[in-house]
Amino acid sequence: MKKRIIIIGSSGIISLNLQKKLKEKKLSFLTFGRKKINLKNKTSYKTLKKKINDQDIIIFISAEAPAKNMQMFFNNMKICDNFCKALEGKKINKLIYISSDAVYSDTTQKINEKSKTLPDSIHGMMHLMREINLKMNFKDKLCILRPTLIYGLGDSHQGYGPNRFINLARKNKDIFLFGKGEERRDHIYIDDLINVLFECIESNKFGVFNLASGKVTPFNKVAKIAISLTGSKSKIFNTKRIGTMPHNGYRPFNVSFIKKNFKKIELNTIESGMKKYLRKLN
């Protein structure tokens, strides 16, 4: 039986860019978003079950993200439970789950795939519990990708960071930082993530892979890069920080494992990725 690609989750930055990539490669796929099948509904798994064939390659992206409260946590667990029920008895080829680096504990050391997973956020706990559920059901068929902060074309959240800074800079609007923008974080350019994801679909790769560039950059520097690349008249302002700094202001990654397993993929630095993103916007 011919392998099919099934994407669960249709509207986020990862799904949209993956769909574009698959079209470019002339590969057929099916996408199921909440408008077609709302996996929060109790009997939704019955509908999805009818859509799944043996030997399908399934990418599970669907989530209410970021999970900010316990209601969103429980909604995401419902989605995962119904997804697992839909696959009961199916002999799928592979399952690729898009998780998050939020599953890892805070540390001053570089995070790798064997680092402790003791998340201190609802979002991180949600993804970790989903991972555990999927491992129990699809251990030998499972590939888990744990991306850090994502930026690039197709982002609908416009969260704090490269996308928002570039969009503000293009409009010559001022950029306001949390505190002095001193926290150092890693980011992953969406095209790099999609290239890894596509290779996971095409090749015989299983297990856990972190997705990051391998270099942390303070947000004040990201803002300066956005202004420089756009030739903007925007100015940068510091603001009084409310609450604690996420991850104690430092979240480094050791990306040697991803480089070893995906040798053809060159990970972009924050500057090279922002340049490519800007070219796509212009």
Number of helices: 9
Strand and helix order: EHEHEHEHEEHEEEHEEHEEHH
Structural class: alpha/beta
**The CATH C-level class name of the domain at 5-147:** Alpha Beta
Helix content: 25-40%
List the helices and strands and how they pair.
Layout lengths: L4 E4 L4 H12 L4 E4 L11 H8 L5 E4 L9 H17 L7 E5 L23 H17 L3 E6 L1 E3 L10 H9 L4 E4 L5 E2 L1 E3 H13 L4 E5 L5 E2 H12 L5 E4 L10 E2 L4 H6 L8 H12 L1
Parallel strand pairs: 1-2, 1-3, 3-4, 4-5, 5-10, 6-9, 7-12, 8-13
Antiparallel strand pairs: 8-11
Helix pairs in contact: 1-6, 2-3, 3-4, 5-7, 7-9
Q: How do you describe this structure in short?
A:
This protein has 282 residues and is α/β, with parallel strands linked by helices.
Features:
Rossmann fold, 282 residues, three-stranded mixed beta sheet, globular, six-stranded parallel beta sheet, alpha/beta, 9 helices, 38% helix, 13 strands
